[in-house]
Design brief:
- By secondary structure, the chain is of the alpha+beta class.
- It has 7 helices and 14 strands.
- The strands form 3 sheets. Strands 3-2-4-5-6-1-7 form a 7-stranded antiparallel β-sheet. Strands 10, 11, 12, 13 and 14 form a 5-stranded antiparallel β-sheet that branches. Strands 8-9 form a two-stranded antiparallel sheet.
């Protein structure tokens, strides 16, 4: 099972209600918490989450407030207060569209064993003063698909997980009272009203959306974290590599690697670890750039990092984690595995 940075699939529900007297932000918060509670009742997600909140002005031309990674507890047990407190500076103001993106940890299953994912789903809710509301569920795991993102069949995984997604979509449809609208087919799958369409049994190489789409997109985002003119090692190599685990709070959040020959090195965020893996990327890529600027060979930079203490954002190299992979691609695949 593999987890991505961009959604594997998405579904939306649209509704319109007469504008009640209650505050727009309050209504938006309560609606997104109701969806969270619904997913919780099915055992799909955990009792913790992070929210990004965006509030536009009454004309929807300017952003009045933007807060990211607002921590939230269990629905209706502190989460409402946390989200409303984040918007407290807007009290009394006339606002336009309110958007809340709620990132939800959960687990997919293989052989009855849960595999934790920091961002299994994101519930996105857009609410306008007119009463129009769009609720969207994004998933970032391939556990629901007939094939994993490398193109290999996974009938047992699908049988174990797909019914859970089907139940979640049905429950949200009942909660909102409007039909589900699957998004258009994406790079990784074809959403349907009750999950995903099965892939045909083609050559796995033709279904390998992980390397055709996810890795190029992720690499582009990573490279944007350092200035264009900054020194940098080569990002590709045809030789075996050495790599280490990067850990934060005893969780592996990424992998730092260097080519055994040549001058290539990189950091691969472990996508099941969620936002913290990408946050750490900025620090590790900056470190590699500085090491390159100091004239260190890529393997020397890796060994120097093994002796470093790291930071609260970057994490640190896990002691005794040095090992060898046949290629950088092998490390990239490992970085997506749940």
């Amino acid at each position: 099972m593999i987890t991505t940075i961009d959604p594997v699939g998405s579904w939306s529900w649209e509704a319109k209600v007469a504008s009640p007297e209650s505050d727009l932000i309050v209504r938006c918060v309560r609606q997104v918490l109701d969806v969270w509670a619904t997913l919780r009742s099915l055992g799909m997600v955990e009792a913790r989450a992070e929210a990004d909140v965006t509030v536009h002005d009454a004309d929807n031309r300017a952003v009045l407030l933007r807060k990211e990674r607002v921590p939230a507890g269990a629905p209706h047990a502190g989460a409402e207060s946390a989200l409303l407190d984040a918007c407290s500076t807007l009290s009394g103001q006339h606002v336009g569209c309110v958007t809340i993106d709620l990132s939800l940890p959960g687990a997919s299953y293989r052989g009855g064993v849960p595999h934790a994912v920091r961002q299994l789903f994101v519930v996105s809710l857009d609410m306008w003063p007119s009463g129009v509301t769009t609720t969207t569920l994004h998933t970032f795991s391939d556990a629901w698909l007939s094939h994993d993102l490398r193109g290999h069949r996974q009938p047992d995984v699908q049988q174990e997980n797909a019914p859970r997604l089907k139940a979640a979509l049905a429950a949200i449809t009942e909660l909102i009272g409007s039909p589900v609208q699957p998004w258009d087919p994406g790079a990784h799958g074809v959403p349907t009203e009750d999950g995903f369409e099965d892939f045909p049994d083609d050559d796995p190489d033709l279904l390998d959306s992980w390397y055709m789409f996810e890795i190029p997109r992720r690499t582009e985002r990573l490279q944007e974290k350092i200035p264009q003119d900054a020194p940098r090692y080569e990002s590709e190599t045809s030789t075996p590599v050495e790599f280490v685990d990067v850990s934060l709070d005893e969780e592996v959040i990424g992998y730092l690697w260097a080519a055994e020959s040549g001058d290539a090195a990189g950091y691969e965020p472990r996508t099941p670890a969620g936002h913290v893996a990408m946050d750490a990327a900025a620090d590790w890529l900056a470190y590699l750039s500085q090491a390159k600027g100091r004239g260190l060979a890529s393997l020397d930079a890796l060994r120097e990092a093994m002796d470093g203490e790291g930071t609260k954002r970057s994490g640190a190299v896990a002691s005794g984690s040095l090992r060898r992979a046949s290629s950088a691609e092998e490390v990239q695949e490992l970085s997506g595995r749940e």
